[in-house]
Amino acid sequence: MKKTSRPRWIERERGHSNPSDCLRSPLRSIADQEDRRHLDRIPNLSKDLEGLWIFAYGSLIWRPDFEFEKKRIASARGWKRRFWQGSHDHRGTLKKPGRVVTLIPDDASCCEGVAFLVSHGEAKGILSRLDLREKNGYERQALTLELQDGGCCRAITYIAPIGNPAWLGAADLADIAADILHAKGPSGTNREYLYRLSAALFDSKINDPHVSTLEGLVRASAKERYR
Predict the structure, then answer these.
(1) Tens digits of per-residue pLDDT, 187-203?
(2) Among 11, 50, 112, 134, which one carries the catalytic annotation?
(3) Is residue 11 annotated as a catalytic residue, yes or no?
(4) What structural domains and CATH numbers belong to the chain?
């Protein structure tokens, strides 16, 4: 039997000489061809590939709830993390929605998070469960990641686009902090979400002034100390 060689463009672990090479890689097709909502249109992952990367920038960082093969700190250029998405299914209610993070396009920004590699055999089931978890305004999207330990890859993530039904949008940080302080939903208080996100970023050595500033404001209002 003829042995199939590994394609040269699979450089996730070996690294690219230039991060922009990712944008030209055929690996883009893994995520780009994946339909945002329809599971029956997930592409067949080649046996040459280790699996599918999923990018976490919010609660998935500390609670992925799925088995993964690898975990890497990763950056998504052209995006910033913001507490602009409403939550009335997890961290708030219809009358008093909480605020959770989404990614906002911004050419001058770079969002750091965690990339999880899942096996191609588990990818369809994992995405099905994530679709349910992220159903309140989030959509699957493909994006390019730069891995902290070298190289880059295409990945799937969940982004709540501007204007979705649960969208709250930008506001003064003091107003966002007030929303977070008072909101509570089936998954717990909104400030617990903020605190756990801040702690997860700190543990991963990721600095995000938007998150840390909000934590300071909420803790000051709640008269809670840092732990």
Answers:
(1) 999 999 999 999 999 99
(2) 134
(3) no
(4) 19-222 (3.10.490.10)
